[in-house]
Amino acid sequence: MMIPRSKTPISIINLGCPKNLVDSEEVLTYLSARGFVNEKNIINTRAILLNTCCFIDDAKEESIEKILQAVQIKKENPECLILVFGCMPVRYLEELKQAIPEVDQFFPGTNPEEIYRYLVKFLFHEQEQYFDELTSSVPSGRLWLENPYFAYLKVAEGCDYQCSFCVIPQIRGPYRSILPDKIVAEATGLLNRGVKELILVAQHTTAYGRDLNPQRSLVDLLQALESINGNFWIRILYAHPMEIKDSLLHYISKSKKICHYLDIPIQHSHEIILKNMKRKENSDELLNLFQKLLKKIPDIALRTSVLVGFPGETEKMFSHLIDFIQKIKFMHLGCFKFSAQAGTPAASMRGQVPVKIREQRAVKIITFQQKIIAGIQSRFVGSVHKVLVEEFLNEGPYNYAGRAVFQAPEIDGVVFIRGSNLKCGEFYSVKIEDFEQYDLFGTVIL
To answer: How many CB atoms lie within 10 A of CB 245?
Structure first.
């Protein structure tokens, strides 16, 4: 077996959601154990690997832009390989081949072994055999591309819901839970290497285990994860509103490790829009769910995502959504503009909303949410919170940055911290002194 004498530099570029990030990290882990190393400077790399997303138009445009940037680098370095994998080749393989012939290979989906074999064949000209021996210098467990103090933990793949605007079931297939033993083993490896926050992700995490034999639940998985020794947080993202059970709320309310935080994308609140989206819940059910959540876990931080400009959305329907957001007062909210995806029912629905109106409605939602968050943030001033310190800034009076339990990484705000000799990757008590839009400012209490 041929083993490279030195680490072979490659660059992995991840695009899209945290679930994509997990896929990219699994590719990195597989390749790193076989002689490759991730190089941040793509100018000096032997191969550029792009994990793409095509969930909405903006994601497709970003993916295409990054691929074309790689093509420009290849012009300067013709021996550099460009490999594109993930969602876009699943959905647009032939179109991509014709539009961007400079790409050396497209891989529909994510298969680390296929990517590895291709790299070896074309970088080292191994036609029949390829080196698959593990190098002893690579630590066990999944390598990560982002912050070393949190890690996304994928608990399932695919989706059984058939929302009329969504292409995920076509790309990722039906819902398939990952076996709990595998998840716990991966979590243990991550925690042993310094991760302090495990973030559970799937298309919808709250359906976890119903397809297993014997059936399991998300509560069963949480119990197993909590039994791992260590001081760490567990955060739950992408909870489907129809899958949130009283048993889960009770368990979160009593847990010492699970963040009092839930991300529950609702998409909309109006009956007609929800029906046309083929959502299973109605407006009253959504309202009752959030009222129950706030009653059972009064300090819970709620995040949601909404979709504006769906076909047939009138000003009255849009106002209904604004009123719903006002009633719940979500701490965090993401807003997406509808983009018609070929092959979905929504793409051919009557009453397509003009792009300009979609954009105006998105701006209104974000502006409205900023007023809500200002009221929420002001109530934090003077209170003390446990914060995970993640970065030394080395400038200004607030020289560290971290997150409180009510802040998910990458999508929510941060806490800027005044302190000295703090250790990144550790928890500290911080007294909040001020806020600015989505971010808080405070001082460590020793």
So the answer is: 12
